[in-house]
Design brief:
mainly beta, 55% strand, four-stranded antiparallel beta sheet, 8 strands, 2 helices
Length: 181
């Protein structure tokens, strides 16, 4: 009988220890803000050199160049041009932008290549002296190239090209990405 009591008490002790012992497990402290910032990789800075080439019968007849600095993972834009008043209704004017707009986003990839997204819009007056005449509605010409491509730092890449439907000219957007120190 002694043996049965000892076994029963031992079982009771084990059961009570199981239910009364606090649940414990390996707990890691939540990472502090300073720890997560220290582990964050610093952003690399890059310069994007854009060239808009106008090609007529396989010859470059005009090149416009634009540069833009940005950090990997960020986007940036440049805009240059003129705001032109256009009479929408009699006595009511709206302004339209005529010029060049370039927006770019750059992302680093694990293979040392870069993913580049570009939106470029170039507009100008179809008739050159329209800018000085305020009494007529302007006739505008517009080129838009939007694209996404993988680029190698230091190597020129063509983002896109378009043919002018009114002539034999072609417009080409090129970019060279350079990592800044």
């Amino acid at each position: 009988m002694n043996k049965k009591i000892v076994v029963a008490l031992a079982k009771l002790l084990v059961i009570s220890l199981c239910f009364s012992a606090p649940v414990s497990g390996a707990q890691e402290p939540a990472p502090s803000k300073a720890t997560s910032e220290a582990a964050e990789k610093p952003a690399n800075a890059y310069r994007l050199d854009f060239s808009v080439n106008e090609i007529d019968e396989s010859k470059k007849v005009n090149t416009r160049q634009y540069s833009l600095n940005l950090n990997a993972g960020d986007s940036n834009a440049l805009k240059i041009g003129t705001r032109v008043p256009v009479e929408a209704k009699q006595g009511e004017f709206q302004y339209i932008d005529v010029g060049t707009n370039v927006w770019a986003r750059l992302k680093e990839r694990s293979d040392n290549n870069l993913l580049l997204e570009v939106r470029a819009e170039i507009s100008n007056f179809a008739v050159p002296d329209q800018a000085s005449r305020s009494n007529s509605m302007p006739l505008l010409r517009q080129i838009q190239i939007n694209g996404s491509t993988v680029v190698l730092p230091g190597k020129m890449a063509v983002v896109g090209s378009v043919d002018d439907p009114n002539s034999k000219r072609q417009f080409q957007l090129e970019v060279t990405v350079t990592r800044l120190k």
